[in-house]
Design a protein that fits this description.
The protein folds into three domains: about 1-125, Rossmann fold; about 145-205, Arc Repressor Mutant, subunit A, CATH 1.10.10; about 210-265, Orthogonal Bundle (Arc Repressor Mutant, subunit A), CATH 1.10.10.60. The protein has helices at about 10-25, 35-45, 60-70, 85-95, 110-145, 155-170, 185-190, 195-205, 210-225, 230-240, 245-255, 260-265, and strands at about 1-5, 30-35, 50-55, 75-85, 100-105, 150, 155. Helices cover about 60% and strands about 10% of the residues. Strands 2-1-3-4-5 form a five-stranded parallel β-sheet, with helices on both faces. Strands 6-7 form a two-stranded antiparallel ribbon. The protein is an alpha/beta fold and about 270 residues long. InterPro entries: CheY-like_superfamily (IPR011006), Homeodomain-like_sf (IPR009057), HptR (IPR051552), HTH_AraC (IPR018060), HTH_AraC-typ_CS (IPR018062), Sig_transdc_resp-reg_receiver (IPR001789), Tscrpt_reg_AraC-type_HTH (IPR020449). Pfam families: HTH_18, Response_reg. It is found in: Cytoplasm. Keywords: Cytoplasm, DNA-binding, Phosphoprotein, Transcription, Transcription regulation, Two-component regulatory system.
Length: about 270
């Protein structure tokens, strides 16, 4: 497990590093910082799984560091070291993703037990993640292998698989129109390259993925425009256009009139 230590006292930092590194063979202290600002810089350069940080530090303190980690590296676990007088800060930190806190002065045994709990949690999460990925791959494979007949004849294996892939992709799109959906994103979900998925999508639907997505978004937009309580920008966001001006441009290009004009004609 790759660990980063953060403490503004150099002696405490050296002691922690030496004790943790020798406590267990697979506990690897790969980075050490004397304040939160330096820690943020090191996070960007190293693969970290656990951060052990003091709460009171100059510049960026431990609490601000916790917030940064929770926002930008939510998979990284944090153990916070805090004094009795800082208990309220620790409570705030727990709301930002800290998995444990230890009141100083704490024994090394207590610290090692906390690290051990985090390591077990990480192993459990990794195991669960690998299982879910394997399960999704197997489900996809089984669905692709599901025998289908067209006009009384079995399809060639490759054609059958490609058709099932496109069916799966088409199933995904309608409920995700508000997302910044891309061919690359969907290709990753069905374990294909974007180029290949784009080619077979057009072969099976007769239109490109981008054209198909625009068509669905505009049809959904027309439905939403019938709701008098929805504003144009709200409709725009609901169908994946965060820029209302761009939405208006696309709508007029394909429908022939602006969303405002369409709404007025209803």
């Amino acid at each position: 497990m790759k660990i980063m230590l953060v403490d503004d006292e150099p002696f405490a930092l050296r002691t922690l590093k030496e004790m943790i590194s020798t406590a267990k063979q697979d506990w690897d202290v790969v980075a050490a910082a004397e304040d939160g600002e330096e820690a943020i810089s090191l996070l960007q350069k190293n693969q970290i799984e656990l951060v052990i940080s003091d709460i009171r530090m100059p510049s960026v303190d431990g609490l601000d560091l916790c917030k940064y980690i929770n926002k930008n590296y939510p998979f990284i676990k944090v153990i916070l070291l805090t004094g009795y007088s800082e208990f309220e800060y620790a409570q705030q930190a727990l709301r930002t993703g800290v998995v444990d806190y230890l009141l100083k002065p704490c024994s090394f045994d207590s610290l090692f037990e906390a690290i051990d709990r985090v390591e077990k949690e990480i192993l459990k999460e990794n195991s669960s993640s690998n299982f879910m990925q394997k399960r999704d791959t197997e489900i996809l494979g089984n669905r692709l292998e599901d025998p289908q007949m067209i006009n009384g004849h079995f399809e060639p294996t490759e054609v059958k698989k490609n058709r099932r892939v496109i069916e799966l992709v088409i199933e995904k799109i309608p409920n995700r129109l508000s997302e910044d959906l891309s061919l690359k994103q969907l290709a990753e979900e069905v374990y294909l390259s974007p180029t290949y998925l784009g080619r077979i999508f057009k072969e099976h639907t007769g239109v490109s993925f981008s054209s198909y997505l625009i068509q669905l978004r505009l049809e959904k937009a027309k439905q939403l425009l019938t709701d008098p309580t929805l504003k144009i920008y709200e409709v725009s966001e609901c169908v994946g256009y965060n820029d209302q001006a761009h939405f208006t441009h696309v709508f007029k290009k394909f429908i022939g009139i602006t969303p405002q004009e369409y709404k007025m004609r209803l």
